[in-house]
Amino acid sequence: MGASLYSAIHPGQPPASGSRPRPRAVPESPVATNPHAWLNGALLVSCVGLLLWGSWLLSRPGTLPIQYVRITGDFRQLQPEQLQTLVTNEVRGGFFNINVNSIRDILLQDPWVEDVMVQRVWPETLRVTVTEHVPLVRWGADSLLNTRGERFTPAPDSIPRTLPVLNGPAGSEALLLRRFREINQRLAPIGMSLTQLHQDSRRSWHLVVDAGFSVVLGRREFSRRLDRFVAVAPAALADRLAEVEAVDMRYTNGFAVSWKQQDL
Q1: Is 37 left (phi over 0), alpha (psi -120 to 50) or beta?
Q2: pTM for this model (two decimals)
Q3: How far, in Å, CA of 212 to CA of 12, rounded?
Q4: What's 14's DSSP letter?
Q5: Secondary element (H or E) of residue 247
Q6: Distance of CA 194 to the CA centre of its chain
Q7: pLDDT per position as a tens digit, 32-50
Q8: Neighbours of 81 (CB within 10 A)
Q9: Is residue 101 exposed (0-12), middle (13-18) or buried (19+ Cβ within 10 Å)?
C-alpha cells in the first residue's frame, strides 16, 4: 500500500527502506548593491536642507523689502497722495510675505472706495489699483447709489448736491434705480428729466421733473399712467407749464392739476 502510494506521487522512484527524500539545495542569489547609494542620499538631504533654508530666508521681513508703492485709478473724490501715504504706512514685510489682503481691507474702509487690487511687481514694488464709486443718484438725505445700484454713505460734505434724489423703502434701491432710468428714457422725447423719484410705504409712486412740478402716479398701472402723462399732460399744459404745482395721473380718463399760488 505504501509503495503504491509513493509511486503515484513519484513514479519510478521507490523509496529506500527507512530513508526520507533529501531536500534540494537552492543556490543563493547575489544581492545587488549600488556603490553610489550614499551619494544619492546625501544629495537628497542637501536639497531638502536648501529648500528649508530658502523658505526660511524668504519668510524674513528683511528679504527683498518693498521700496516703491504705486497708486493707480481714476479719481474724482479720492486723493491719490493720501492713499499713497496710507498704504506706505501699512507696508510690513518683504516682497514674499507682505499681507496684501490687509492693505486691501484698510483701503476698503473709505466709503468712496468700491474695489481694490494689490499686486506685487518684481522685485521691490507694490502696485495698488483703486476703483472709486461713480455716484449716479442720491439716496435719501445722506447716501448715494452707484451705477449698479449699490448704496454707500460717504462724508456729507462730499455728496454731490446736484444729483437726482431717490427715496424708498429699505432694500428697494435696485428697483428705484431701474424705474429712474425707465422714466428718464420716456421723458426724454418731451425734453424733461427727473430730479426726484419717491416710493412711499404704500408703494405709491411720486416724481418731480426738472420743469419744476411733481407727478403722482399712484400704486397701480405705473407704465400706463406714465405713458398718458407723456402723451397728454405737457401739450395740454404748455401755455401754463410754469404755473403747475402738481399733476395727479390717478384718474381713469384724465388728470388733475394743482397750480402754484400766485403772489398778490
Answers
A1: alpha
A2: 0.73
A3: 127
A4: P
A5: strand 244-248
A6: 30
A7: 556 666 666 666 666 656 5
A8: 9
A9: exposed
